[in-house]
Amino acid sequence: MHDSLLDPVPLLRDLIRIETVNPPGDEGRLVAHLERLLVAEGITDYKVVGPSADRTNLVVRFPGRGEAPPLLLHAHADVVPVTGQEWTHPPFEGRLVDGEVWGRGAIDMKGGLAMMLSALFRLRAAGERPAGDVVLAVVADEEDGSGAGAAFLVERYPELFEGVRYAIGEEGGAGIELAGIRFHPVVVAEKRPGWLRLTLRGPGGHASRLAAPGSPTARLGAVLTALSGARLPRHQMPAADRMLAALAGALPEPLASAVARLREDREGDAPPGGLPLNEALQLDSVLRHTVNPTVVRTGHKINMMPAEITVDVDGRILPGEFEVADLVAEIRALIGGDGDGDDAIGIELLHEDPRVRPELIAEPEFGPFYDRLEAILREADPEAVPLPVMSPATTDATVFARLGIRCYGWLPLLLPAGSPHRRLLHCADERIPVTALEFGTRCLTELLRSHP
C-alpha cells in the first residue's frame, strides 16, 4: 500500500485540485480519481451511480469482523463557489503552507473525506478489519439540495445501505472554545431547509416620476428589514435542551446560569451575554426557526420602476413535527401581505427536505454508540469536553435518516486556541492544519476499530 494513502494530507491536496464547484458539480472526476485508488489496492466491491456521467456517487463496502452492525461514513464531493472572494493562495491548488492545507473544501468537506479514507486504509494496511462492515458513500450535490447525491442513492439504491444502523458525517468537526474551555461538538440533530421566494407586486412606471404608493420598491425595504436578523418564536426541542444543559454544566459562572436560563423557554430572552457573537447566534438559532433574505431580483433598466420584485429567503425548520406552513405563518406575522389586495405578498416554496420521523432527528439516541463517540474524544483530548450539538444547518444526514439510520456529525479536529478555522466554511482562505487532520484520522480509526 502506498504511504500516501495512510496520510490524509496528500489525499486532501489531491482532492482539492479536482474542482467540484457546485453548480455545476462535476463530481464524476473526483469519483473517477477514487476509483483508481481503490482498484490499485485491489478493492473492487464498489458501485458508481448517478443521474449523469458527471454527477456520480461512489459507494464502497469494507468488510468488518461482524461484531457490530454496518456503519455508514458519508462525505460530499462538491464544494461551494469562490466567485468574488479574494484568496491569499489559489483555492484549487491544495498548497501546504506553514503546516496548513489551503483550498476550497479543506474543511467543508474534502478534509473529512481524506480523514475517512486514511482511517480505512490504515486499518487495511495493519491487516485489521473494522468492528462491522463500513459503507463509505462519497456523494454529489450536498451543497445544492442533494438531489443528485444522497437523495438519489436513498430513493433508488437503498439496498446499498442494508443493515446500517448508525452514520457519521460532517458538521461535528471544528472545536469550540468558550471561557477558556475547549468543546468537541457531536452533532445529534439538524434543521432542514425550507427555501422560499417572496414576490412583491404593484405599480411600476417611469423612474423619472415619484414612485406610486405601495410600489414594490417602496415595500422592499420594509420586508428586508423585518426579515434580517429576525428572531422568530421560541420552540423547545429535546436535542437543543440537552446541548444547553451540557454547556451550562461545563461553563463557569455567571455564564453557566445565563445559558441555563435559556432552557426555561421564556419568550423574548436574549442570547446569553459573555459568549462570542458567533456562538451566541448559533445558540439562538437552534431555539427557533430561522429565515434570512439572500437573493433579490428586480428590474434591469435604470429608468423603469419594477412592477415585480422577488426575494429568495433561506428558511431553516426545526426538526420534529414542524412543517413549512409553520415557518410561513411565522414569516407572515412579520411581513403581512397575506390578503388579495395591492399589498399582497406571494410566498412560493422553492425547496424543502422531506420531514424525517421525529424520533430519528428531533429526539436523538444517546446510547452506546454516542457514548463511544464521547469516550474516544475524551481519550484523545482529555482536557476538552464533548458537547452534543443541534446544528442550525443541514447536511446529508437528514437524507440518510429517511432509511432509519441514526446520524451523527462527528469529524473531530483539534484546532489551535483562538483558531479562525471554524469561520472559514464557504469563505475565502479556507484551510486546515495538518495536525487537525491527523487528530481526526486517529479518532476515526479508533471508532472503526471499536464501534458498538
Average pLDDT, rounded to a whole number, is 92
Shape: globular
Cα distance, first to last residue? 28 Å
Cross-sheet strand order for the largest sheet = 1-2-6-3-7-17
- What class do helices, strands and sheet pairing give? alpha+beta
Compute the number of helices: 13
Number of strands: 18
* Uncertain ranges: none
Helix content: 25-40%
Strand residues, percent: 15-25%
Biggest sheet descriptor: 6 strands, mixed
Rg value: 23 Å
Summarize this, please?
With 452 residues, the chain is of the alpha+beta class. It contains 13 helices and 18 strands.
Describe what this molecule looks like in 3D.
This protein has helices spanning 8-17, 28-40, 110-125, 150-156, 216-227, 238-250, 255-261, 277-285, 324-335, 358-361, 368-380, 397-400, 434-450; strands spanning 46-52, 55-62, 71-76, 96-97, 100-102, 134-139, 166-169, 176-178, 181-190, 192-201, 205-206, 290-297, 304-305, 308-317, 345-352, 385-391, 406-409, 431-433. It is an alpha+beta fold. The strands form five sheets. The protein has a six-stranded mixed beta sheet with strand order 1-2-6-3-7-17, with helices on both faces. A four-stranded antiparallel beta sheet has the order 12-14-10-15. β4 and β5 (100-102) form a beta hairpin. α6 (238-250) runs antiparallel to α7 and α11 packs across α13 (434-450). The longest helix has 17 residues, at 434-450. The model has no long low-confidence stretch (mean pLDDT 92).
